[in-house]
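Example 3.
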Amino acid sequence: MAFDIEMIKKVYEQFPSRVEAARKLVGKPLTLTEKILYAHLWEGLATQVQQRGKSYVDFAPDRVAMQDATAQMALLQFMQAGRPTVALPSTVHCDHLIQAETGATQDLAKAKSQNKEVYDFLASVSDKYGIGFWKPGAGIIHQVVLESYAFPGGLMIGTDSHTVNAGGLGMVAIGVGGADACDVMAGLAWELKFPKLIGVKLTGKLSGWTSAKDVILKVAGILTVKGGTGAIVEYFGDGAESISCTGKGTICNMGAEIGATTSVFGYDKKMADYLNGTGREMIAKLADNISEHLTGDAEVYSSPEKYFDQVIEINLSELEPHINGPFTPDLAFPISKFAAAVKENNWPAQLEVGLIGSCTNSSYEDISRSASVANQAVEMGLNAKSEFTITPGSELVRFTIERDGYLDTFGKMGGVVLANACGPCIGQWARHTSDPTKKNSIITSFNRNFAKRNDGNPNTHSFVASPEIVTALAIAGDLTFNPLTDYLTNSRGEKIKLAEPKGIEMPLKGFAVEDAGYQAPAKDGSSVVVKVDANSDRLQLLDAFNAWEGTDLHNLKLLIKAKGKCTTDHISMAGPWLKYRGHLDNISNNMLIGALNFFNEKTNSVKNQLTGVYDEVPKVQRAYKAAGIGSIVVGDENYGEGSSREHAAMEPRFLGVRAVLVKSFARIHETNLKKQGMLALTFSNTADYDKIKEDDSIDIIGLKSFTPGVPLTLELNHANGSKDEITVNHTYNAQQIEWFKSGGALNIIRMAQV
Ligand code: SF4
């Protein structure tokens, strides 16, 4: 599982001089976020400083982490780049595909059999290209990364939104789409708009029932699910230094729920303790040597309002435990107000299941605090009234907490230990319920609680709290129970008040594990064969897309003129389609099936211009492809908003759509289209959207002199013989025009390898 110490040494060698140069150029003290970002610029500090806030800046990340669901397409694409190995340390983690049903052993065995072809592919592709592979059961990506790979001052990207967890160990860690991961592994820069900065000053000290989770539950209440959009949240102050490293991880992890790009804490003693406790003394020593650079400048933290776009202050000594939900993580209640809210809103007070763990909250500290609560129940004759599950974040944690007796304690309380995997947190939960139509309540120590997130049931009211509060409420079986003030009655009829939880940050006997579940890649992977069954319906090797034919594009059929919102979900739906993420042909059968056709106000119903018959969008497009005819998709404002899902760009490319013409793009989707060798165009005059008719054949003129900043022309050939000519804009730079001409960015990388 070796972390790459040489890479970290290199980062730390350059860090101070880069930070000092940036400070001089910017002409003011720097936040930690700025230091890390400036230290990881791809090139040209001066230019990038000028670009700050205006445009996208190129960065050079240190690591890539991928979870199994998103890694499939990222790695299938990476194979197209023709590189012998990945350009930077990268890992794959098998955590999302394991369904929780009975308990760890049985569930893991079932997942290994059901997902064998996916695991075999990921293991072999990792082996071949120098990627560390964490087997199913090894743990959840973010917990494993925190334990093994995160380091203060580093920059990491990961194909999962909770990649941000590594901010707890002082890393700027950001969730991205598979296309970005692929490019970075292939040796390209990674671009990000320089974020806004939100400072959160923590004073005081956590105590009693209050834990790190309550900090982020409180912040979510203040900032709401949108408040962190486009911003990096930086925590500082005495209070920050008093929180354990894993507690910091919890806070950063759930920063995804306020829409933040990421969150980060400065390097401190707690981080050094965690590095030392997890066998990374060398990193702690290196970090100690440059510690002043691994935190924000003193002037910034003493006058934060001058340096952050927004500042929030929280006194940890006054912070109450919180419970957030249902259906949104920003509906925050201090526990003293929660019972009244339950009654007022008529939320089901009976608590059916309490679930602790996940990548957010399964540290040794979390588990020991929860176990101290569970132990009281066991010793005082209290039977847990709700079902109770424990999801360890990694095998390292699971093995250690088993050795130290905590799993035994949970077992005595009636708890069921689930696999070290995402399980109920991502809806991989075969929940036992007699009546799914009944309104019901569950509480978790996870992060997301949108409708249907955990069990797919819209009637489930899911609340989020710290693991110790979840444990106490599961014992009570009652959502209105407040362990700080209320009493329970045990089997002997005695009134019991639970004592405050007690935790241990780091195991006194150290962490231990027999088999962490890591598979190192082959030293020379050149002879390793990537395993993909030719008959698989879940995986398919990709073929390179064709290069541009060198002419203007003529006779493109209008596939669909989408009306209104058209997000990546409308373009490439999730849900049952997720299982085809590694099979471009199969997943393309969901292309644009959620988009509303302007002409008939229906979804997944467009006119096949060859037959005049209405049919499903992918079927019509496949008919055009079979006839060797290109097509064009027309859309409205902010087309492609939502996620960075690359399938939304790959599917139209694969099925033969040549251009997407819209009023405006969501930027990531626009870039994804460019990367796939598509034409991403915008109306110069948005009113021209109305000129597009259902039976149009469209020519795109000017491609032979395709130049940055120069618009193209579209000729709309209407069915009645009339024509319209419109001007369309694009944002292709010289490099992106080469992507178009070569048939996609990966074709260029591959050609450069030859
Ligand atoms: S445990 Fe939940 S939040 Fe964490 S990676 Fe898995 S699905 Fe995402």
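Residues 95, 140-142, 160, 162, 358-359, 422, 425-426, 446-447 surround iron/sulfur cluster (CB under 6 Å). The radius of gyration is 27 Å.
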